[in-house]
């Protein structure tokens, strides 16, 4: 799964890459995006800023509402569940990114392993989005059921990466056609195993549903 990704391009570059309208005026997002933080998506023919993660509303032992947690990853096999179904059927989006990270190592001393497409400093992951009372407009990244042989030693799942020819199918195609794209990436990937510490408060938030 993905609890951290990198997006180093501005809204104008994203709009040009995806051949869409630049509309995220005043966008405020970091080069590294964590659950619960803002990032860019391409939805409705425009570049928009949304928060990463659908709100999961929980209650305490006494029934009191707790602070919502951002569920930032949607499992492919759960896209027909109540939590995701309407967004998957009606509100799919593209998530521009330049790399994503996975945690590797022993608990307490995990480091970041960055993955990307070789020779591409911008590509797209499949996403879904919706409006929420808690976070405003928000999005989640769709994850494959398995990682595939290319990255199976890094993690058991990976983001659904989309080829350019599949952008329209993901955004505007039928749910059946979109679901057929939810497969491990079969092309080449670069894997950069770093000594950067993984731990940061934002990366430990709710991630997958």
What does this structure look like?
The protein has a single domain, classed as Alpha-Beta Complex (hypothetical protein yedk fold). Strand 12 and strand 13 form a beta hairpin. With 209 residues, it is mainly beta.
List keywords for this structure.
209 residues, mainly beta, hypothetical protein yedk fold, eight-stranded mixed beta sheet, five-stranded antiparallel beta sheet, 4 helices, 12% helix
Distance between the termini: 11 Å
For the record, what CATH class applies? Alpha Beta
CATH architecture: Alpha-Beta Complex
Question: What Rg, in angstroms, do the CA atoms define?
Answer: 16 Å
User: What share of the residues does DSSP label as strand, in percent?
Assistant: 35-45%
Helix fraction by DSSP (H/I, runs of at least 4): 10-25%
The count of β-strands is 15
Shape field:
globular
Oligomer: single chain
Largest sheet: 8 strands, mixed
Structural class: mainly beta
Low-confidence stretches: 201-205
Helices and strands in order:
Layout: E1 5-6, H1 11-17, E2 21-22, E3 32-33, E4 38-43, E5 46-52, E6 54-56, E7 69-71, E8 73-75, H2 85-90, E9 92-97, E10 99-104, E11 111-116, E12 123-132, E13 136-143, E14 161-162, H3 167-172, H4 175-180, E15 190-197
Parallel strand pairs: 2-5, 5-13, 8-13
Antiparallel strand pairs: 1-3, 1-10, 4-5, 6-7, 9-12, 10-11, 11-15, 12-13, 12-14
């Amino acid at each position: 799964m993905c609890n951290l990704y990198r997006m180093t391009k501005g809204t104008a570059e994203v709009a040009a890459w995806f051949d869409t309208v630049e509309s995220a005026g005043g966008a405020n997002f970091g080069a590294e995006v964590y659950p619960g933080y803002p990032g860019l998506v391409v939805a409705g023919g425009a570049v928009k800023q949304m928060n990463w993660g659908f709100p999961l509303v929980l209650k305490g032992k006494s029934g009191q509402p707790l602070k919502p947690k951002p569920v930032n990853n949607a499992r492919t096999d759960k896209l027909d569940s109540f939590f995701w179904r309407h967004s998957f059927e009606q509100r799919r989006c593209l998530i521009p990114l330049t790399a994503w990270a996975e945690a590797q190592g022993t608990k307490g001393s995990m480091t970041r392993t960055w993955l990307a497409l070789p020779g591409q400093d911008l590509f797209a992951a499949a996403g879904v989005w919706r409006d929420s009372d808690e976070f405003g407009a928000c999005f989640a990244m769709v994850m494959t059921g398995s990682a595939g042989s290319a990255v199976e030693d890094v993690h058991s799942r990976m983001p659904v990466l989309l080829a350019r020819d599949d952008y329209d199918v993901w955004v505007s195609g039928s749910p059946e056609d979109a679901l057929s794209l939810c497969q491990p990436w079969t092309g080449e990937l670069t894997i950069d195993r770093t000594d950067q510490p993984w731990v940061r408060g934002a990366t430990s938030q709710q991630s997958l549903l």
